[in-house]
């Protein structure tokens, strides 16, 4: 998700409902990872407030004071792992220290649905465009479960589009996808499947540098309330 979900659209559950429908169980376990923020308690409370309204078994994973000994087994047992937004760089550093980068890949290969918003979308790609460092947009290497790059908040923050175009023109970031707030791109087995949105005009785009020209291709995006 480029933006949206319970944290940005608490009165609009369309994207979260869509994520739940992708699970292998009719009443899936959904584990929330709030590791990109320094306000994890409040963020987790919002998650439980939203997901207790859905037909799921919600849980979360804290890396501060958790009583879970075997993190890998815990994550593999989840039907859905949902990662919140925040600082992508800090989250990736924390994950690598705890080996969650390996455990999340293993969960994915075992059939767990991986989802997230903003930083929680960036993390699954080879690279992302991020404002994790104050005052600038930079390129960050991520988990590489999905090939290419990702840019969230494409229409929601004024500098997102021009900064991504600049990074592409300087060959600092690979081609990939950009998503507006309220838009999401769905991959199955690492391959593009479709694009969906919780807002009528939110879109997903393919972006690339082709022979020095920045190409931005709008992908047909299904409005989930249509």
From TrEMBL:
Keywords: Hydrolase, Protease, Serine protease
Entry annotated with the keyword Ligase: no
Top-level taxon: Bacteria
Molecular functions per Gene Ontology: serine-type peptidase activity
InterPro entries in alphabetical order: Class_I_gatase-like, Peptidase_S51
GO BP annotations, alphabetical order: proteolysis
PANTHER family (alphabetical): ALPHA-ASPARTYL DIPEPTIDASE (PTHR20842:SF0), PROTEASE S51 ALPHA-ASPARTYL DIPEPTIDASE (PTHR20842)
Family: Belongs to the peptidase S51 family.
Protein name per Swiss-Prot or TrEMBL: Peptidase E
Lineage of the organism: Bacteria, Bacillati, Cyanobacteriota, Adonisia, Adonisia turfae
